[in-house]
C-alpha cells in the first residue's frame, strides 16, 4: 500500500481531528516529502518552503475537524492548504522566483513524453496523480506547459502568455481546451 | 444571471478558479457564489481533486527535522522551554473570566465612556481590554479600532521598568503562539497597529510580558514573565 493511500490518509486525518498526536506524526511522515517538494517547487527557497510547510501542518492540526471525508480527497485538501500558503508567501515576500518551463520532475516529464505504457507505474505517485499524468501525456506539450505554469507559479492568462511569448487569446484557448480534455480523459479513466 | 443553473459555465469557471487563472473581480464574485451555492462548491472540489495531484509531479523533498520539532511545539505536542506560562495563562482564563467578568466589563465600559470623548466620534473603538496585574489592580487600558486598524494602550498606573528591559504587548490566540503587538512606553499612551488576526474573535486575551530591551528575541513568542493581562472584548 502506498504511503499516500487515500483510505489510510482519511483515517489519519480523522484521528488528527481527535487530537491524536501519533496519528499527526504518521500523517506528517506520509505526506511531508510530497507537500514539501511541492512548496519548494513553487517557492524555490528552502527556508520559505519550510516555513510554509510548518504553517500548513499547524493549520491541518487545527482544521482537521473541518475536513469532510467523502468530498475532496485527503491529499487534495492538504495540497490546497499548502498551495494557498505558498502563494500568500510568494505575494508577501515579493520573491522573484525563477520560472522555468520544466516545472515537472524530470522522471515525470520522461514518463509523460514516453509512448511506452510502463514508466508512469514506476513513479511514487498516488493513483489520482498517475491518472492525471496519463491524461497530461495526451495533451500537446505546449498546452501542458501553459496549464503547469499557471498551476505552479500562480500566473494569470496574460502572465502565462508573457512567459511563453504567445498571444493572450491563444493561451486562453489552450488552457480552456486543455482543462476540458483533462476532464474528459479523467472521467473516462474513472469509468474504465 | 443565475450561473448556478448553468452547469457548463459553473464547470468552466470552477476549473479556472482552481487553476488560478480566474482573477480579480471575477474571482471574488465566484468566491461569493461558492459561499451561497453547494453545487458550485462541489464543482470546485471536483476540480481540486482533478488538478491538485499535479503537486505530485514535483520531485519529493525532505524537510529538515527541525520543521517537525517546530510544528509539534506549536500544536502543543511538545513543551517548548518557557511554554509553561502559556498553558497556565490559558488555564487561568476561565477563572479570570468567571471571577472578573462583571467588574471588568463595568470598568471597561466606564473607561470607554471616558476615552471615547477624546476619539473622533465617527470611529469609536471596536474592542477594549483592561489589563491588570496579579493583584487585579488595573494598569492599562487597551482600545482597538477595527476601522483604522490601530490600537491605543494607555497606562493608568505608570510602571517602573529597568533600563535594560521592555514591556511587550501580546495577542494570545485560542490556539498557537501569541503574536507580538509591539512595545509599550513606560508611561503615557502609545498607538500601535492592530493586525487582522488580533481581534477578540481570534485572540480573546491580551498580555504584557517583561522582555529584554527591544522585545522578545524569539520570533514565535515571549521569553519573560507575564506582568499584566486582561480579556480582550468586542464592544
UniProtKB/TrEMBL annotation, chain A:
<feature type="domain" description="RNA polymerase sigma-70 region 2">
    <location>
        <begin position="27"/>
        <end position="94"/>
    </location>
</feature>
<dbReference type="InterPro" id="IPR013325">
    <property type="entry name" value="RNA_pol_sigma_r2"/>
</dbReference>
<dbReference type="Pfam" id="PF04542">
    <property type="entry name" value="Sigma70_r2"/>
</dbReference>
<comment type="similarity">
    <text>Belongs to the sigma-70 factor family. ECF subfamily.</text>
</comment>
<dbReference type="InterPro" id="IPR039425">
    <property type="entry name" value="RNA_pol_sigma-70-like"/>
</dbReference>
<dbReference type="Pfam" id="PF08281">
    <property type="entry name" value="Sigma70_r4_2"/>
</dbReference>
<keyword id="KW-0731">Sigma factor</keyword>
<dbReference type="InterPro" id="IPR013324">
    <property type="entry name" value="RNA_pol_sigma_r3/r4-like"/>
</dbReference>
<protein>
    <submittedName>
        <fullName>RNA polymerase, sigma subunit, ECF family</fullName>
    </submittedName>
</protein>
<dbReference type="InterPro" id="IPR007627">
    <property type="entry name" value="RNA_pol_sigma70_r2"/>
</dbReference>
<dbReference type="InterPro" id="IPR013249">
    <property type="entry name" value="RNA_pol_sigma70_r4_t2"/>
</dbReference>
<keyword id="KW-0804">Transcription</keyword>
<feature type="domain" description="RNA polymerase sigma factor 70 region 4 type 2">
    <location>
        <begin position="131"/>
        <end position="182"/>
    </location>
</feature>
<keyword id="KW-0805">Transcription regulation</keyword>
<dbReference type="InterPro" id="IPR014284">
    <property type="entry name" value="RNA_pol_sigma-70_dom"/>
</dbReference>
<dbReference type="InterPro" id="IPR036388">
    <property type="entry name" value="WH-like_DNA-bd_sf"/>
</dbReference>
Amino acid at each position: 500500500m502506498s504511503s499516500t493511500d487515500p483510505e489510510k490518509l482519511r483515517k489519519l486525518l480523522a484521528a488528527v481531528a481527535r487530537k491524536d498526536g501519533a496519528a499527526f506524526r504518521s500523517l506528517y511522515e506520509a505526506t511531508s516529502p510530497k507537500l514539501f517538494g511541492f512548496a519548494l517547487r513553487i517557492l524555490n527557497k528552502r527556508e520559505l518552503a519550510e516555513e510554509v510547510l510548518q504553517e500548513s501542518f499547524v493549520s491541518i492540526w487545527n482544521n482537521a475537524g473541518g475536513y469532510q471525508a467523502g468530498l475532496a480527497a485527503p491529499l487534495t485538501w492538504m495540497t490546497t492548504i499548502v498551495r494557498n500558503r505558498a502563494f500568500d508567501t510568494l505575494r508577501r515576500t515579493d520573491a522573484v522566483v525563477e520560472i522555468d518551463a520544466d516545472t515537472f520532475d524530470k522522471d515525470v516529464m520522461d514518463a509523460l513524453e514516453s509512448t511506452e505504457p510502463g514508466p508512469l507505474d514506476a513513479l511514487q505517485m498516488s493513483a489520482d496523480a498517475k491518472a492525471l499524468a496519463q491524461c497530461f501525456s495526451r495533451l500537446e506539450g505546449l498546452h501542458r506547459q501553459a496549464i503547469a505554469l499557471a498551476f505552479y507559479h500562480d500566473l494569470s492568462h496574460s502572465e502565462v502568455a508573457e512567459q511563453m511569448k504567445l498571444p493572450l487569446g491563444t493561451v486562453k484557448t489552450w488552457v480552456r481546451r486543455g482543462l476540458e480534455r483533462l476532464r474528459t480523459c479523467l472521467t473516462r479513466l474513472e469509468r474504465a | 444571471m443565475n450561473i448556478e443553473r448553468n452547469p457548463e459555465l459553473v464547470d468552466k469557471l470552477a476549473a479556472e478558479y482552481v487553476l488560478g487563472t480566474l482573477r480579480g473581480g471575477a474571482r471574488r464574485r465566484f468566491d461569493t457564489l461558492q459561499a451561497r451555492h453547494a453545487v458550485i462548491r462541489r464543482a470546485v472540489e471536483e476540480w481540486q481533486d482533478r488538478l491538485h495531484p499535479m503537486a505530485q509531479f514535483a520531485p519529493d523533498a525532505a524537510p529538515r527535522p527541525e520543521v517537525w520539532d517546530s510544528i509539534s511545539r506549536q500544536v502543543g505536542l511538545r513543551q517548548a522551554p518557557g511554554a509553561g506560562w502559556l498553558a497556565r495563562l490559558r488555564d487561568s482564563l476561565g477563572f479570570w473570566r468567571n471571577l472578573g467578568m462583571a467588574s471588568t466589563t463595568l470598568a471597561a465600559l466606564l473607561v470607554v465612556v471616558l476615552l471615547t470623548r477624546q476619539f473622533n466620534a465617527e470611529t469609536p473603538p471596536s474592542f477594549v481590554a483592561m489589563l491588570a496585574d496579579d493583584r487585579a489592580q488595573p494598569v492599562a487600558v487597551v482600545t482597538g479600532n477595527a476601522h483604522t486598524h490601530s490600537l491605543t494602550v494607555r497606562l493608568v498606573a505608570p510602571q517602573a521598568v529597568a533600563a535594560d528591559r521592555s514591556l511587550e504587548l501580546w495577542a494570545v490566540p485560542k490556539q498557537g503562539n501569541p503574536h507580538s503587538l509591539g512595545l509599550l512606553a513606560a508611561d503615557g499612551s502609545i498607538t500601535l497597529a492592530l493586525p487582522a488576526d488580533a481581534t477578540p474573535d481570534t485572540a480573546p486575551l491580551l498580555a504584557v510580558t517583561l522582555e529584554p530591551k527591544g522585545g522578545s528575541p524569539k520570533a514565535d513568542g515571549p521569553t519573560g514573565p507575564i506582568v499584566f493581562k486582561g480579556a480582550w472584548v468586542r464592544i
